[in-house]
Specification:
TIM Barrel, 288 residues, single chain, binds flavin-adenine dinucleotide, globular, alpha/beta, eight-stranded parallel β-barrel
Amino acid sequence: MRIPELFGPGAPVFSFEFFLPKTPEDTATLFGSISELKRLGPAFVTLTYGAAGTARERTVETAGRVKSELGVETACHLTCITHTRSEIADLLRRIRGLGIESVVALRGDPPKDAQAPPPGRRDFGYARDLVGFIRERADFSIGVAGYPEKHPEAPSIEEDVRRLAEKVAAGGDWVITQLFFDNRDYFEFVKEARAAGIRVPIVPGIMPVTGYGQLKRFTNLCGATIPFRMAADLELIKDDPEAVVRYGIEHGAKQCRELLDKGAPGIHFYTLNKSRSTREILRNLRGS
Ligand SMILES: Cc1cc2nc3c(=O)[nH]c(=O)nc-3n(C[C@H](O)[C@H](O)[C@H](O)COP(=O)(O)OP(=O)(O)OC[C@H]3O[C@@H](n4cnc5c(N)ncnc54)[C@H](O)[C@@H]3O)c2cc1C
C-alpha cells in the first residue's frame, strides 16, 4: 500500500526514521536496531539523505537494504540544494530500480565547507521545485517537511506555512514535522496549515530524548525549543545517562499519547538508529 493511503481512518500510523550511518560500526548498529524494530511492525520507514561525496551513493544502497530487511515501504529522503536536474533524475531512476515508491523531498542545507549558489542560480531553489520535478517525471508518493516552530530562515510562521502550502500544491502527499516537545506548537501549526488550505496528513516527528548534550546540539541545529520545565528536569539528571533515557521515554510516551488522543494521524519516530526508546514508547502507547 502506498504511504498516503495508510493514513485513512483507523489505527494510527507509526513510522520510523533512520539516519544514514557513516562508519561500518554505525551500519552494524543500524541493522541491529532494525531487526529489533521490525517486530514493532512500522507502517513505513524513512532513511535520511547525505548529500556530500560518497554518502549520495550510500543513501540509495542503504535504502534498498533497509527495504529488503524490513519488508515495508522505505521512503528515501532526497535533498536538492547541491544537485542538478540530471543528477536528481538519475537518483530517482536508481531509487525506483530498487522497488522504492516513496521519497521525502527536501531542499537541504548548504554544505558547511562550501557556498551554495543563491536560489535563482541553482537548478532547485527550494524543496517546492524538487517536489514539482519529481511529480512531473515519476509516480512517487512524496513526503515534505513542516516546521511547527517555523523553519529557522523563515521570517514568520505564517510565511513558512504559505511556503509549505506551495510544496503541497506542487505534489507533496504528506507532511512530516520537525521535532518539537510542546504539543501546543503542533496543534497550532496544524490549525494554520488547514487554514492555508493544506489537506494532506501532517505527521508529528518525535525524537525521544536519549542524552542531554545531544538534545542541545540537535535543537540548536534545527531551531526547536527545549521547554523550560524539560531543561530544568534534565539539568538535575544530566550526569546519569540511564535516568535521562528513562525521562525521554516517559516524556515521549506522554507527548505521543496526547498527540494521538487529539487527532494526530500517527507518529514518525526519529529513532537515531537506536531501538530502546522507540520500542518502549510504542509498547506504552499500544498498552502491551
Ligand atoms: C522531516 C525532515 C526530514 C529531513 N531530512 C533531511 C535529510 O534527509 N537530509 C538533510 O540534509 N536534511 C534533512 N532535513 C533538514 C532540511 O533539509 C532543512 O531543514 C532545510 O534547511 C530545509 O529543507 P526544506 O525541504 O524544509 O526546505 P524548503 O521547503 O525549501 O524551505 C526552506 C526555507 O525556505 C523558505 N522558502 C520556501 N520556498 C520559498 C520561496 N519560494 N521563496 C522564498 N522562501 C522560500 C521556507 O519558508 C524555509 O524558510 C530534514 C528536515 C525535516 C523536518
